[in-house]
Write a structure and sequence with these properties.
Layout (H helix, E strand, L loop, with lengths): L2 H13 L18 E3 L5 E9 L11 E12 L5 E17 L9 E19 L4 E3 L2 E14 L13 E14 L4 E15 L21 E16 L5
Antiparallel strand pairs: 1-6, 2-3, 2-10, 3-4, 4-5, 5-7, 7-8, 8-9, 9-10
């Protein structure tokens, strides 16, 4: 994780340290800082930035922009459910294990990724917002689909992966129907390397990897979005 990414995540966590939901003793309904969240269903358009380093040799997709659409239900309850779809245009490195260490790395090249997941989140202030702020924490799990990269002839493919992503963020209500979403998540997925990565190109050069044929990596993902409440027709 880069220093810039770490600072962004720490800033978001500090923002989430706003006072949690507490008893409204001493406030009349008109002057209370808490407001009911009236609607339960939202469509959220998101944009974001994916970070990370692509694993120990940089061949997993990372570092690029994303666009997405999310359907939220039970958005006015303590436990919220969401269904998300996102597209990301990411970068990755190319590694040729048959070449010496000084010349085997090239790129980056483009790799497009589609994400689909189910998310569960705990709305920390329940069915209310505090001065319009409603922080949350949760997790999502789903499937990613990475396109093939024609430039990579080594046998490495990211392919289809199951992933898990703890997340935290906040909703900032701009009105009864509209809110701004700020979210940070870390996508955990496995990277499996071809056997050629373990073979040294010569007696003088080490192989690309020296232990294990796979690893789990954490890919940071920051997202912002706009949510709009709507009513279901049934």
């Amino acid at each position: 994780m880069t220093r810039r990414t770490l600072l962004a995540l720490l800033a978001l966590l500090a923002f989430l340290a706003a006072p949690p939901l507490a008893a409204q003793v001493g406030h009349s309904p008109e002057t209370s800082p808490y407001r009911d969240i009236r609607f339960g269903n939202y469509l959220v358009a998101t944009g974001g930035r994916v970070f990370g380093d692509g694993g120990q040799v940089g061949v997993a997709p990372h570092d690029g922009a994303s666009l997405g659409l999310r359907f939220v239900t039970l958005g006015n309850r303590p436990l919220q459910i969401s269904f998300s779809f996102a597209y990301a245009d990411l970068e990755r490195l190319l590694q040729d294990p048959s070449k010496p260490a000084a010349t085997r790395t090239s790129g980056p090249v483009s790799q497009r990724v589609l994400w689909a997941d189910l998310g569960l989140q705990l709305n920390i202030t329940g069915n209310k917002s505090w001065h319009g702020i409603a922080p949350f924490a949760g997790a999502a799990g789903g499937i990613s689909f990475s396109e093939s990269v024609a430039e990579d002839t080594t046998g490495f493919r990211m392919g289809t992966k199951v992933y898990f992503a703890p997340l935290a963020g906040t909703r900032i209500f701009l009105g009864q129907r509209l809110y701004l979403l700020l979210e940070a998540r870390a996508v955990f997925w496995s990277v499996k390397y071809p056997s050629a990565y373990r073979i040294p190109p010569s007696a003088d050069d080490p192989p690309l990897i020296t232990s294990g044929s796979s690893e789990w990596t954490a890919t940071p993902w920051l997202q912002a979005g706009l949510g709009w409440a709507f009513s279901l027709p049934f």
